[in-house]
Amino acid sequence: MDISFIIPAKDEEQSIPELTNWIxxxxxxxxxxxxVILIDDGSTDGTWEQIKIANGSNPFVKGLKFNRNFGKxxxxxxxxxxxxxxxVITMDADLQDSPDEAPELYRMIREQKFDIVSGWxxxxxxxxxxxxxxxLFNGVVSRMSGIRLHDFNCGLKAYNAQVVKNxxxxxxxxxxxxxxAKWAGFTKITEKxxxxxxxxxxxxxxxxxxxxxxxxxxLTLMFxxxxxxxxxHLFGTMGIISFMLGFVFTIKILWDxxxxxxxxxxxxxxxxxxxxxxxxALVALVIGVQLFLAGFLAELLARQTASKRDYLVIDxx
Length: 317
Prior knowledge:
50% of the residues lie in helices and 12% in strands. The protein has helices at 16-30, 47-57, 72-82, 102-110, 128-145, 161-165, 177-183, 209-227, 231-263, 276-306, and strands spanning 3-9, 34-40, 61-65, 87-90, 116-120, 157-160, 189-193. It has a 7-stranded mixed sheet with strand order 3-2-1-4-6-5-7, with helices on both faces.
């Protein structure tokens, strides 16, 4: 099979018929074998009924239904496991992504050998209240991850099947799939300017709160990606820094005591235990030891799970 379309849908009953017919026309015009996997992510309208109707009229349309809303990442993860195509294309169900982009996305994956081609909605039909936070978010993610993309949030993306079969996403990590794929070794990532259409039915499912949650998810992802297999590098470094600061403060306290008693002959105005630097030294030493022990325990856990880890094998002869 050439292409698998993975399309999460939440309360999109009006869009489903037009979207599935549009995809079918494009695929037939270019002679592709395909499947459309629609995931009903806990819709409260007639989305699932429309998916069943589309399946009845077109056997290439398939549907999966969640018992409640689990989020886009969960829907994509389930769709990735079910996909059978050589190229997997994800898109939103709201008709703002154009299926006409699919043939070129397929060509870039199959002929130019990219692992991921991410859509870039260069001309967006969204209010300024969504565009500027999105630019800020994309700029930060691009700089922190080292992946030069203009639009991490674009739902229209194409993947080599090996990518989606060897990564797992959860929570709200769908916007960071290129980052997760890069850490898994799929580094051939590029972008393509795609058409962004005005919303035809319904309302946007995302608000300004996703900007905050997006940055928190990014911090989590960067931490897990860099230190999950070597936690001592983080906790040990922080512990050593804290311990050394406490040690320097302690030396300073001892020197002041010796200097007052043996050299300057000027008694200290306050006892050692009454000086703020004494408590700073004590806290820094204790925190340093605790961080080091936390890193040691995390390293033991990481080593225990290493033997159970399935490392990525993408080919064999």
